[in-house]
Specification:
1 helix; 6 strands; single chain; alpha+beta; about 120 residues
Length: about 120
């Protein structure tokens, strides 16, 4: 998997310097050759002190109808943001629980995406 990240703002609770503000997009080049455009919903920290990113896959119209979310490790190399796969089930559960807590604390229903404005 490779990715391109377009960050543009300030993070909510993130220690990253990427500048993510909830309106960034990420283009995933998946192993099967498919390119998937995603909206970066949140960068958050889990109990293991690792940062993670939640990505909302978008269709060709820039929408998500099924509510599916992808979770990845969020890393920085030489000041550049990047993603890494979560390969361990225990780590995935940790990240998933942290994202659920993030959703609860941010009243996810109140988030408005640029395409919906």
């Amino acid at each position: 998997m490779t990715n391109e990240t377009n960050c543009s703002g300030g993070c909510d609770g993130c220690t990253s310097t990427c500048g993510f503000n909830g309106s960034a997009t990420v283009t995933l080049n998946l192993d099967d050759g498919v390119t998937q455009e995603c909206l970066a919903v949140a960068i958050f920290e889990a109990a293991n002190k690792q940062n993670y990113i939640a990505l909302l896959p978008l269709d060709e119209n820039g929408e998500n109808h099924d509510g599916e979310v992808y979770l990845y490790r969020f890393i920085e190399e030489n000041g550049e943001p990047g993603l890494d796969n979560i390969l361990d089930d225990e780590e995935y559960e940790l990240a998933s629980d942290a994202f659920d807590e993030w959703l609860d604390s941010h009243e996810f229903d109140d988030i408005v995406y640029e395409d919906e404005e």
